[in-house]
Specification:
There is one protein chain. By secondary structure, the protein is mainly beta. Helices cover 5% and strands 62% of the residues. An eight-stranded antiparallel β-barrel has the order 1-4-5-7-8-9-10-11. A hairpin with a 2-residue loop joins strand 4 and strand 5. The radius of gyration is 17 Å and the shape is elongated. Pfam families: YceI (PF04264).
Amino acid sequence: MSTTKWVIDPTHSEIGFKVKHMMFTNVSGKFTKFDASIETEGDDFENAKIHFTGDVESIDTGNNDRDGHLRSADFFDAAQYPEIKFEATSFTKKDEGEYTLKGDLTLHGTTKPVTLDAEFSGQMKDPWGNTKAGFGLNGKINRKDWGLNWNSALETGGVLVAEEVRLVIELQFIKQ
């Protein structure tokens, strides 16, 4: 069985997240600079080797002041920890088109295991003859597990920024 390499198509991929603000609305953001690759045996994605890196400086929530705060030592500390990394430890099929992706997420100088739900959208050729594969990933992490502890108490009780971060990721890969 031969090894197949897949590289990310960044123009058709998005690394997004949502966090509750003031305990009742979501703020969405994304990373605009990232890289990812997959190595498979043939065209079967089960047990694939998956690698991801993201540029912390590229965080974008649609608000320059908030993005600057997120890059600061209060949150990501981009100067000291400029990169987010993910290395898959397993990619196992649950059902048709449904997988569980487990791996190690390195963020803010800390590496911890995470589990994400993965939906495999399938493969197809684009108009230029490239074989593409699509995936949707969803999951939750607690930002405090990676030392992102900053918060502010609200007068009405509760906190300004939730601990739970929902990951919403859409990926398209190109077969090499």
